[in-house]
Every structure is written in structure tokens, then in C-alpha cells.
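Subgroup meeting minutes
Present: P.N., E.W., G.H.
Scribe: E.W.

1. P.N. recapped why we're keeping a running log of single-chain structure predictions: easier to compare across weeks, and new members can see raw inputs and outputs side by side.
2. G.H. added today's entry (83 aa).
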Amino acid sequence: MCMCGAEVESKNHLKENMRRIREIQKNVHQVDDESKQPVKALWKLSRFDCIPSRVKEQLEVSDDVLLSLPTAAHCIVDCLLSV
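Output recorded in log:
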């Protein structure tokens, strides 16, 4: 159907796409900036101040084990841990 006398304005898809890409990039940068902020330490009862974390101990032990392994073994361990 043709509307005589009425001009149809063509849409600039490239401009709209570029605007949308910039908007998405801006949102991604904001999320990245928010994630770079230091993590607030969790509150801990004062009576447990002297007690070390079990998780921290396990992480340190696993790091020591990983450092003692040859380079090829690192790849295998990383693959197993990621699954």
C-alpha cells in the first residue's frame, strides 16, 4: 500500500546497532568496575579470632601440592578441578 503524500522515513540500522553496542559496553564496564571493589570482610565472633579457617588451610595445602607437581600434571589437575 502506498500512502501518497506521506514520506516514509528509512531507519538507520547501523546507527541503532552502534548505539546498542555502546550501551552494552557501558553496562559491562560498570559491572567490571563494581566487581573491582574490595570485598567486605565477613563479621566474625571475637571468641573465634584465634581459630584459623579450615578452608584456608585446605587451600594452602592444595596450593603447595600444585606447586610441587610438574607442569604437565598442572594441566591434568586443572582439568579435573574444573569439572
